[in-house]
Amino acid sequence: MRARQESCCFTGHRPGKLPWKYNENDGRCLALKRRIADAVELAYQEGFRHFLCGMALGCDLYFCEAVLALREVHPDVTVEAAIPCPTQADTWPAAQKERYDRLVSSCDFETMVSDHYTSSCMQRRDRYMVDHASLLIAAFDGTAGGTRYTVEYALSRGLSIVDLPILAE
Q1: What is the pLDDT of residue 169?
Q2: Over the stretch 53-101, which tens digit does the pLDDT of each residue have?
Q3: Going along 6-159, which residue ranges are E strands?
Q4: Taking the domain 4-165, which CATH number applies?
Q5: Domain parsing of the chain, residue ranges
Q6: Which of 43, 45, 19 is closest to 31 using CA atoms?
Q7: What is the edge-to-edge ordering of all strands in the sheet holding 135-140?
Q8: Residue 75's CB: how many other CB atoms inside 10 A?
């Protein structure tokens, strides 16, 4: 594992909170994916080599894909799947579950934060990522929920934050 000072984590909304839901061909989604890829590239240029991803539906998977693409260009990049529990993707739509399985298997490291689902395992996963990083990239619209929790926790821990606002229009 890499040192915290060269590690970057990510938080972002799931499809239910995104204006385009699951339609990844929507121009706003494509623009967000470009902004995530640009933020990941900038983090690399600033010395970040290890990227932690919570592997949730939506923005987390966009982030994971962007980092895996960066690793194709920069082989010194490592990707860690921080998984809240073994059943995280069990109820997902089949195509998303296949995507998740493919992405997890492409990561360099896999950390299972809880050995079974609990009401707090998602927050434990978020704290794990923040506690092992010095930069947080956040795709966030300001609303209450897990992404906000992670941003607030990162602020309390002194992480630098790159804000990628999600706009309705």
Answers
A1: 63
A2: 999 999 999 999 999 999 999 999 999 999 999 999 999 999 999 999 9
A3: 7-12, 50-53, 78-83, 109-112, 135-140
A4: 3.40.50.450
A5: 4-165
A6: 19
A7: 109-112, 78-83, 50-53, 7-12, 135-140, 160-165
A8: 7
